[in-house]
């Protein structure tokens, strides 16, 4: 395998499953944004406000 860089087969399988999960999660979010654009816009505005008011 070209992606085998000292990782065990269990670790590689876990990484593959995680990548698939994250892809599906992103697809679900995109679908939800298309179905409810107003709610998506509100969520984006709130996230931007959280970023703007967060201080280190």
Task: Describe this protein's structure.
The longest helix is centred in the middle third of the chain and has 27 residues, at 9-35. The protein starts with 8 loop residues before the first helix and ends with a helix. Helix content is 79%, strand content 0%. Helix 1 (9-35) packs across helix 2 (37-53). It is mainly alpha-helical.
Q: Rg from C-alpha positions?
A: 18 Å
Which structural class is indicated by helix and strand composition?
mainly alpha
The averaged pLDDT comes out at 88
Q: Give the ordered list of helices and strands.
A: HH
Portion of residues in beta strands equals: under 5%
Q: What's the β-strand tally?
A: 0
Give the low-pLDDT segments: none
- Helical fraction equals over 70%
Q: Counting H and I runs of at least 4 residues, what is the number of helices?
A: 2
State the major sheet: none
From the spread of the alpha carbons, the general shape counts as flat
End-to-end distance, in Å? 42 Å
